[in-house]
Protein: non-specific serine/threonine protein kinase
Amino acid sequence: MSARTPLPTVNERDTENHTSVDGYTEPHIQPTKSSSRQNIPRCRNSITSADEQPHIGNYRLQKTIGKGNFAKVKLARHVLTGREVAVKIIDKTQLNPTSLQKLITRIF
Structure:
């Protein structure tokens, strides 16, 4: 049995500036012809240029395929293999001790 390595935590609110009514952030990319990049948010695991999709590591985040009280599930595609996976993005600000325990139980 191999040990599991946790994925890095990514807060979408740090990578985007569009927040929906329910508090979740949808990836929103607007193409720009301006050479100035002062208004483009920066994060090592997110957008690197205006015409790229948000990503986590080697996975490009695509559409939202599910939502819950403290998380949403995004379809993601591995950039090298093209394999599609589901990525759960957890909004840690919505977690209380009870929901955190439920989450840990589901993961492990």
About this structure: The two ends are 14 Å apart (CA to CA). Confidence is low (pLDDT under 50) at residues 12-44.
